[in-house]
Amino acid sequence: MTESSSSMSLPDLLPIQPFTGPARGIITLPGSKSLTNRALMLAALCAKPVTLSGALFSEDTQLMTEALRQLGFTVDADPTALTLRVSGQASGFAAPEAKLFVGLAGTAARFLTALCAAAPSGIYHLDGVPQMRKRPMRPLIEALRTLGAEIRCLGEDGFFPIEIHATGLAGGPVSLDAHESSQILSALLMVAPLARAPIVITLVGGVRWPFVRMTTKLMEQFGQLPIEDAENDAFRILNSTSYTLPGATYAIEPDATAASYFLALPLVTGGSLAFPNLRGGLQGDSQFIEVLYRVGLNGNTSDTGVTFSARTPLERHGVSQDFNAFSDTFLTLAAIAPLLDGPTRITGIAHTRKQETDRVAGMARELRRLGQEVVEEEDSLSITPKPLRAGETIETYGDHRFAMSFGLLGCHDLLGDGRSWLTIKNPGCCAKTFPNFFELLESVRQNSLAR
Description:
Layout: E1 13-15, H1 33-44, E2 50-53, H2 59-70, E3 74-78, E4 83-87, E5 97-101, H3 106-117, E6 123-127, H4 138-146, E7 150-153, E8 162-165, E9 172-176, H5 182-191, E10 199-203, H6 209-221, E11 227-229, E12 234-237, E13 249-251, H7 256-269, E14 272-275, H8 288-295, E15 297-302, E16 305-310, E17 320-322, H9 330-336, E18 344-347, H10 359-369, E19 373-377, E20 380-384, E21 392-394, H11 400-409, E22 422-425, H12 437-449
């Protein structure tokens, strides 16, 4: 089984076929969305061509790729080889005006806003789907304005759609509140070397550090090294060096968040799965593995990769965990919480109310639909397992992580005879980050039937 850049045709309503045997197989994960879009940004800022290998081909990365093309950069895509080649940097920002559409991609929205504000000239119009117009942008817009950018909000101030009249960034000191989205800080960090003077960013409020560390480490690999003043929650970014990538090829790590669903699958079905290309590195979401160990997962590393398996007999313990640092994975745990022995408490997730949808309220609503006892607070969910209710359709709210998380739960053979008991609405929303998720899930199920 291998990762594919295309997905099977999915119906509007997808009944999930439960596993009737223990999961088994080999999982080749797609590339990281977070790293692919960051690397695309930095590649565009290099002077010479850069090739990204193992890149993710999904809706979010395609939106980023197309926006760079609209800005004058050349991006050659090979979905079969999983490569993206960025070149023609000298032609970037050559057009006097461009219209960029970011859909619901938060990385593309924030990174492109900062990139266009740092451009030497040009008028840039940025917008997304209606839901994107509700996602936090104000702190980034205000920080860029402080640094000399002219940004006009065409609707509510601080939100999309926006129009940027670029003259470059002046540099200097700036305060930034990135507690709602670390992407706001990452965007500013990546364009800071383009300013006419060094930039000093002082954080106001907290930030989810794993994604910030991902950005600064990636910048270092591309020849920049932000100077962190940890005592004062500040960064100083110099403007004396240009982005450059030794070797001209950057390998994208497999997506740690995408891994979470298949890592948890043996806890739902029993069995074991091998991950030949799973490796740690820049992604904070890899911390989720430690949570699954506490639930009942075993891991074994060998020369051929890592194999994760359920314990025999099957153990599934409820846990309490602060997910603030790796919150994209909280839905995976919440969705399988009905199968765990004892309550599960998930904290540190208030900021996810302003992501693709209100993920806290949505998860509480869908778990209650399935008969679960859920206590919802601003920053937490407490889930007490109750008998699962069959025959329900899960609302995904257009959010890929709802579709994948509850797709995982549906693999549980609730009725004991392999009949579907759970239906996913709009499963195609997975195209945002994992286009062939359900195809891969079905191939694992088929493999589990083989004897």
